Amino acid sequence: MTSIERLAANQARALTERGDAWLVCAYDDHAKCERNRLEGAITLDELRARTADGANAGATLIFY
After folding, report:
1. What is the reported pLDDT for 57?
2. Among 40, 41, 13, which residue's Cα sits nearest to residue 26?
């Protein structure tokens, strides 16, 4: 089982800016996600598309 860890906003930003993590909006409703989207975040649909071929399977995911 993978551990789940809370990150401070500055930690999450540093990880995503370095390319070590993806920031993912966890709302499945597209409109709700767009209203609450943070800079640099991807949607669940974008996450599914990026991981469909198994690429970046080891990427750290930060959900909000």
Report:
1. 64
2. 41
